[in-house]
Amino acid sequence: xxxxxxxAAAGSPGDAVAAEPPLISVENVRKYYPWGRTFFGSQGQVxxxxxxxxxxxxxxxxxxxxxxxxxxxTMGRLILGLETPTAGTVRYRGTPLGELKGDxxxxxxxxxxxxxxxxxxxxxxxKTIGQSLxxxxxxxxxxxxxxxxxxxAAAxxxxVGLTPPEVFLDRYPHELSGGQRQRVGIARxxxxxxxxxVADEPVSALDISVRAQILExxxxxxxxxxxxxxxxxHDLAVVRAISHRIGVMYLGxxxxxxxxxxxxxxxSHPYTQALIRSTPVPNPRExxxxxxxxxxxxxxxxxxxxxxxxFHPRCPVAESxxxxxxxxxxxxxxxxxxxxxxxxxxxxxxxxxxxxxxx
Length: 359
What we know:
Elements: H1 2-10, H2 13-16, E1 24-37, E2 43-56, E3 61-65, H3 72-80, E4 87-92, E5 95-96, H4 102-111, E6 112-115, H5 129-139, H6 146-159, H7 165-169, H8 178-190, E7 196-200, H9 208-225, E8 228-233, H10 236-242, E9 245-250, E10 253-259, H11 260-265, H12 270-277, H13 284-289, E11 329-333, E12 336-339, H14 349-355
Parallel strand pairs: 3-8, 3-9, 6-7, 7-8
Antiparallel strand pairs: 1-2, 1-4, 4-5, 9-10, 10-12, 11-12
């Protein structure tokens, strides 16, 4: 994963191609789900995604990180077109997904693929690995001849490190290990020759050693195919290792975003600071010297989110304005932004947290 750090130091692919039109742009997207009914009969709403904007450029990895329930997987489904936004727009190469019809929609489905967290549930247990890959190739019209499709399936298996591929073509999902099944899931996503892959917690269920191998595989495939990843995870160490840019989500909103190393070296939002401080470090001396940030209280309900900053009920440095006024989205570095009153000019979240003894 060292190459990602080197690229981040030299400038991310997103920086290099910023003059190019983005592959995917998300503009103030909201996704609300109906939830129950009140005593008077009105229906509540779960605000899974609440006003998120982000951009994906060709050849980069955008890491989306946050606690369970923060809306990051819903964001992935919106980008895939599996969910329709309640408000806002998701664009593919400048065209809103809602305007893609017929062949244009089919082309989008080929060009934007997904790798799921549960590799076993994502594969048909009654089909062999070869049958699953051949079906993907034929349905996407990548190839039209069944014999050619099987040969292409074998090539895909070899490309993801399942060799000799002939051994795996006729196996069923239950005959493979978790890491092998996830490689099959990656091969199936590659079958349509995508430009964008949404990887939703692709390594969270794997052992540490296998996790590193899958991350290295994803990195190699990105260099070879210039594929773009939206990498969704709750694991900060994994996101830092593979991502060029990072977005931190909390209660359906982005609270901080920027180049990976900038976010980790100079976190500006108190929530990001707390997440980073809670990440284990291998050096015992560094771990003992580092102050812990203990967040009090529970995550507010997405059915009834708090006014102002969504993080203020748990924030150790919250001020009165945080409880009433939504924070601005302000620049805190080159390409680095945070939604925090204390990150704005005249206020420092890091300084305020340090003076409060929280960081």
